[in-house]
Amino acid sequence: MGLLTPELGLFVWTLIAFLVVLVILRKAAWKPILKMLNERETGIAESIAAADRVKKEMSVMQAENEKLMAQAREERSQMLKEAKETKDRIVTEAKEQAKAEANKIIVDAQQQIQQQKLAAMTEVKNEIGNLAVEVAEKIIRKQLSSADAQNSYASLLAEEIKLN
Amino acid sequence: MSFKRIFSFFLLVLTLSVASLPAFANEGAKEAKEGEKFNASEVIFGHISDAHEWHFFTAGDFHATLPLPVILYSPTKGLSVFSSSAFGHEGHREEHEGYRLVDEDYKKELNSKGMGEADVKAMKVGSVVAADGSKVYDFSITKNVLSMFLSVILLILIMTSVAKKYKKNGVMTAPSGFQNAIEPILVFVRDEVAKPNLGTKKYARFMPLLLTVFFFIWINNLLGLFPAGANLTGNIAVTGCLALVSFLVMVFNGNKHFWGHLLNPPGVPIGVKLILVPIEIISLFIKPIALMIRLFANILAGHIIILSIVSIIFIFGKMGANPGGGFGFSIISVAFSIFMFCLELLVGAIQAFIFTNLTAVFIGQAIEEGHHHADENGFDHAHSNEEIIL
């Protein structure tokens, strides 16, 4: 059948045309296009890899930041706690010191009062003694104008000494 | 596009086709004058075979044909080049420089001269023979060759302009325009055809061949769908040539492992070897033959179906006293041929892909490194799934 017998001319022309297209397109089209496509694909892959890397770095940095923040927060609360403790201590110390001071002042005051009281008492005693001596002198001068009286009195005194 | 718009577009096409029917009917009428009956097979074969002139249409006695250069080589007379118009017009063929274009008249003439019936029958209508019966080699720029040259020019223009765009826009710019249409196909051939079949390391060497095969077949399939277009990829010489190219690439790239498995399959008893090796050798040659026939038959069948559907109009028109039947059937016929054209658009791309893919599969088998061997029972499994399909 006519359709199934290949014609030599068409066969040869096809071979020539196909090889010409192959050679021309290989050099002028396929190689540059495929090269460009490869370059683009590697470029895109690299960009994605770079983006991923940056993302990873970002997440690492974020984690670090959070760690730092947590640390800072902890430090702050620590400081607050310490400050409170210091405050409490100072207040307590001040209170105790004040108390001690007050006690000391009270003790001093009492001592002074005691001393002054003692001094006053001594003075009063001295004064009373002096007065009593003066009174007794005056009385004795008057009563001991007689010898009898003198004797009786001397014996009385002697009596008194014994009793003491 | 909404369904309604598609439907109205379809109606418009139908009306226009019916309106243009008188032109077709004219051609039918002319045929009728010659043979009284519409000869569908003659019309169809006229369209699908190669010719020395490009016939566009006939209106009445006017033949719109483009004469093409005839290049002949005869061992006795040497080279002769002349225009095909020297052979005269259809129905009035004449001899030129001792050569004659074979037509039915010439066959009758030869018959009356007392030439053998079988010899005359073997002559192809449309081919060139020497009047003295000597051997002639025909290297004419026929309709198919011219159409192929057009496709080659188109292909080179398109692809170089796309390549230029890549160079102009730089690597990291998104593709635009025609570049955008070509790139997915290119990437598809690379990622779905070349890489899986040839391996990621070796595929680059065969990419130019695969891409050229794919686009060459595809563009010629599409050009063949134009009215009055040449039936290039439905011609066995063309598909045979392409199959030969892929066969030669496969044979010359075959490695030790490939030839070893083919000629001396390891782990096979000698008795089985005697049967197996011839089968393997036959299968080696069947591969390109399958490629050749698959493309040829698919494209040819598409053309024949479309032409047959159109021919039905004229057959019906000739059946009754008036051509009303033809007009009536034309609506169905045109609808069918539109469907067939859409199908052929699909088939054109699919066949180009299949040819490319099978070429890649065959080359892949030839360059495959020995990583599999016959199992302990001596059975060698199929090289790939595609081999089973073949």
Automatic annotation (TrEMBL), chain A:
A GO term from the CC aspect = proton-transporting ATP synthase complex
CDD domains linked: ATP-synt_Fo_b
Quick check: keyword Glycosyltransferase in the entry?
Answer: no
**How does the entry describe its membrane topology?**
Single-pass membrane protein
Matching entries from SUPFAM superfamilies are given as:
F1F0 ATP synthase subunit B, membrane domain (SSF81573)
Localization (cell): Cell membrane; Endomembrane system
One GO molecular function term?
proton-transporting ATPase activity, rotational mechanism
Q: Which domain of life, per UniProt?
A: Bacteria
What keywords is this UniProt entry annotated with? ATP synthesis, Cell membrane, CF(0), Coiled coil, Hydrogen ion transport, Ion transport, Membrane, Transmembrane, Transmembrane helix, Transport
Per the database entry, which stretches of residues form a coiled coil? 51-119
**UniProt keyword Coiled coil present:** yes
Matches recorded under Pfam families: ATP-synt_B
- Listed transmembrane segments: 6-25
Instruction: Return the InterPro entries for the record.
Output: ATP_synth_B-like_membr_sf, ATP_synth_b/b'su_bac/chlpt, ATP_synth_F0_bsu_bac, ATP_synthase_B_chain
Oligomer status and interactors: F-type ATPases have 2 components, F(1) - the catalytic core - and F(0) - the membrane proton channel. F(1) has five subunits: alpha(3), beta(3), gamma(1), delta(1), epsilon(1). F(0) has four main subunits: a(1), b(2) and c(10-14). The alpha and beta chains form an alternating ring which encloses part of the gamma chain. F(1) is attached to F(0) by a central stalk formed by the gamma and epsilon chains, while a peripheral stalk is formed by the delta and b chains.
Q: What does this protein do?
A: Component of the F(0) channel, it forms part of the peripheral stalk, linking F(1) to F(0). The b'-subunit is a diverged and duplicated form of b found in plants and photosynthetic bacteria.
**Of which family is this protein a member?**
Belongs to the ATPase B chain family.
The record's annotation in NCBIfam families points to: ATP_synt_b
- This chain belongs to which protein, by name? ATP synthase subunit b
Protein's organism: Taibaiella soli
Automatic annotation (TrEMBL), chain B:
Cross-referenced InterPro entries: ATP_synth_F0_asu (IPR000568), ATP_synth_F0_asu_bact/mt (IPR045083), F0_ATP_A_sf (IPR035908)
Protein name in the entry: ATP synthase subunit a
UniProt cross-references to HAMAP family, sorted A to Z: ATP_synth_a_bact (MF_01393)
Per the record, membrane topology reads: Multi-pass membrane protein
From the UniProt record, which GO molecular function terms apply? proton-transporting ATP synthase activity, rotational mechanism
Task: Using the UniProt record, give the first listed, main subcellular location.
Answer: membrane
Question: Where would one find the signal peptide in this protein?
Answer: 1-25
Q: Which UniProt keywords apply?
A: ATP synthesis, Cell membrane, CF(0), Hydrogen ion transport, Ion transport, Membrane, Signal, Transmembrane, Transmembrane helix, Transport
Q: What's a Pfam family in this record?
A: ATP-synt_A
Spell out the subcellular localization from the entry: Cell membrane; Membrane
Chain's role: Key component of the proton channel; it plays a direct role in the translocation of protons across the membrane.
Organism for this UniProt entry: Taibaiella soli
| Presence of keyword Transferase | no
Q: Which family does it belong to?
A: Belongs to the ATPase A chain family.
Q: Which domain of life is it from?
A: Bacteria
Q: Per the record, GO CC terms? A: plasma membrane; proton-transporting ATP synthase complex
Report TM segments.
Answer: 145-163, 206-226, 232-253, 274-293, 299-317, 329-354
